[in-house]
Specification:
alpha+beta, 10 helices, 19 strands, about 400 residues, D-amino Acid Aminotransferase, Chain A, domain 1, 12-stranded mixed β-sheet, 3 domains, Rossmann fold, 4-stranded parallel β-sheet
């Protein structure tokens, strides 16, 4: 199958990587001349997907379009034109419009009884402020007191374009749900680790959550998918507060990072399953045996320094490529070789058990530090973090 990936940044990297793992050909579309995913495609069309003539030429002969961008107007324009020429676009725009707004998402959670952090001003400090239309860590601010909130340089938080709620200290977890026509499958729960800017720097699997909490997470996620009448894929992110989960956000689109971790742990290819839903209007969930242990981690190298950081680093070092057996890692998505002094890599380490995968990753980091004579290592975390994981998990 020939799939067009529309967008060459973080989601485009994910889509291209997993499409190739499924044996598909990838035609990348991006308005930039050298997007990060350029080195991970079979064909490249530099095009603005809102310019209809060039877009129609770029999707000629493709079986499906995987959107890898987050602009609602662009997605709507692209989908309308693709439908005119009979090419399916693997996104549910109605669900996406809700998930792309934290205000609308939180309203849905309230309507169906989904647990979520308490809204300001009914909660105490610390308080987190999130832009309504942002995803992930973009624009997120945390305020420890009323004085800190009042004195901070920020946009007007009272104009309805922000969501303010309690900042919940705890571990965060992610789960994708896939399906349509009331037939929904929760896939694999992954554990997320944030850097100092609340951007995800590491994903591990399988989860440390207890079977009971896993069941709660799966039930909550399927409830949301059913309420959205989802067709396609949705990512749900939660935080553990005490012994209960609270939903932080949803994204009704292909996410980044967690699908790759789940692929290496279970063999489940979310891009392949997503494409089949829209091309053949059906799919079967493959049987999964015992999940492998996986650590998926992002690093940036500069002279004398190795930093483990959020995935945003992967978009600033030019085209990326896939390299197997990378300094002891099973595989890497990296710019290494473009500039030997400054480069980035998303590292995959897999073993039969998570503890062994973690040990392998430590060895990879150690080998890179030895090879490049790196003395300084940075690995930041949010200022407020949970101190320990309760034994009852």
């Amino acid at each position: 199958m020939l799939v067009a990936v529309a967008g060459g940044r973080l989601q485009g990297i994910e889509a291209s990587y997993l499409a190739h793992k499924g044996g598909w050909e990838v035609r990348l579309l991006d308005r930039e001349s050298t997007p990060p995913a350029l080195g991970m495609c079979d064909e490249f069309f530099q095009t603005d997907v809102t310019e209809m003539e060039s877009f129609r030429e770029a999707i000629r002969g493709v079986d499906c379009i995987i959107p890898a961008l987050e602009n609602t107007e662009v997605l709507e324009t692209m989908t309308r034109e693709a439908m005119r020429v009979g090419v399916p676009v693997a996104i549910d725009l109605d669900a996406y419009r809700i998930s792309s707004s934290k205000v609308r998402s939180n309203r849905l959670f309230s309507q169906i009884g989904v647990p979520q952090p308490t809204a300001w001003p009914r909660c105490g400090f610390p308080v987190v402020a999130k832009p309504d239309d942002g995803s992930g860590s973009r624009g997120v601010r945390v305020f420890g007191s009323a004085k800190e909130m009042e004195e901070a340089e920020k946009p007007d938080l009272s104009d309805g374009s922000w969501v303010l709620q309690e900042f919940v200290e705890g571990r965060t977890f992610s789960l994708e749900v896939l399906g349509f026509r009331e037939k929904y499958f929760p896939l694999q729960i992954t554990d997320l680790f944030m850097d100092g800017g609340y951007d995800c720097k590491r994903v591990t699997a399988p989860t440390i959550l207890s079977p009971e909490l896993c069941s709660d997470f799966e039930r909550i996620s399927v409830d949301i998918a059913q309420a959205l009448e989802l067709k396609g894929i949705m990512d749900v992110e939660v935080v553990l507060k005490g012994h209960a989960l609270k939903v932080l956000e949803i994204d009704a689109r292909l996410p980044s990072q967690t699908p790759t971790a789940a692929f290496w742990s279970t063999g489940l290819n979310m891009v392949e399953m997503l494409g089949n839903i829209f091309v053949s209007q059906d799919f079967e969930l493959p049987k999964v045996g015992k999940a492998s242990g996986v650590v998926y981690e992002h690093i940036v190298i500069s002279p004398g320094v190795l930093e483990i950081a959020g995935e945003h680093i992967m978009t600033g070092y030019g085209p990326l490529r896939v390299v197997p057996e990378f300094f002891g890692a099973d595989e890497a998505i990296t710019s290494y070789g473009n500039d030997r002094d400054h480069w980035v890599a998303s590292l995959v380490c897999a073993e039969s058990e998570l503890s062994a995968a973690q040990k392998k990753m430590e060895g990879v980091i150690g080998e890179i530090r030895r090879r490049f004579r790196i003395e300084r290592m940075l690995d930041s975390s949010p200022a407020r973090v949970v101190s320990a994981i309760e034994g009852s998990l």
